[in-house]
Amino acid sequence: MIIVTRLNDTQFAINPDLIERIHANPDTTLIMVDGANFIVTETMAEVIERIASYRAHVIALAYDTQGEEIPRGPRKL
């Protein structure tokens, strides 16, 4: 889950896998797969960065629980 902020400064967590589109015109609007819309104070770039960080964290946890080393950078062949 990522945490975003409504225009009234309340925060909520949202599942980034359910975001279909993000519009910035001028407010950032998250359009969900079920058609729900959320207007947030974060910029589109900030939302995308939070999604990327969340997914990287999930991948790191998956490697950590398997006792494997987390890959760092491109693999050498």
TrEMBL record:
Highest taxon of source: Bacteria
Entries under InterPro entries matching the protein: SwrD-like
Protein name: Flagellar protein FlbD
